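re: ur question from yesterday

yeah so i grabbed the chain u mentioned. its 223 aa long if i counted rite. heres the sequnce exactly as i have it in my notes:
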Amino acid sequence: DRDVTVRRQAEVALRESEQTVRALLNASSDIVALLDVEGTVLEANDAAARRVKLERHELIGQNVWRLFPPDAVSTREKQFDQVRQSRQPLRFEELRGGIWLDNVIYPILGTHGAVMRLAVYAHDITDRKLAEEALRESEARYRATIDAMDDMIHVVDRELRFTLVNACFHRWCEDLGLTDDPIGKAVLEFFPFLTDGIRSEYERVFELGEPLVTEDNVTTKGQ
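ran it thru and got these structure tokens back, copy pasting raw so excuse formatting
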């Protein structure tokens, strides 16, 4: 009787654990699925089922190659083969149906090191991709604006290294015979003719966080 009781308790604990995992997976908006090495769906959460417009119980037992668009099957087969052969996770991003997904394919190894299962995870990164594209467009407009200005503009970091210069700045440097790219170089390294007092002016702005208007006179190459 005691042996049966212990076994029953273990079975109950296992069911409760499985129910907890199931609840956690279904609460996630990320796609999670478990496949065998042939691509048959062994387990999946609700998000995975919604992605292919099926109920979860309908998805279980399906072969994933029947669920992917025809143009994606060849690429995905190569990715699965790569994971099976390397026994290493594979991460990649893709655009499908107007949605950007960050995908990971994990190999699950058996006792002898062979790949027995494949766990698939996909996270919707559409908002991030749209934000990145908007940022790139904003930066392009910003760049076009400062390059159109007749004033020299440059940006430096806390180490006083150039992080951005505009077209007028480049032209001024060329007039002085300075043809190297200033990006990444320190101001006083790139312009050795500047007085060291200019360093304190930059540092003052960093410390106080306030604009500073100054006039400085230096001579280089007779200018």
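noticed a couple things. The mean pLDDT is 89. also The two ends are 101 Å apart (CA to CA).
anyway ttyl
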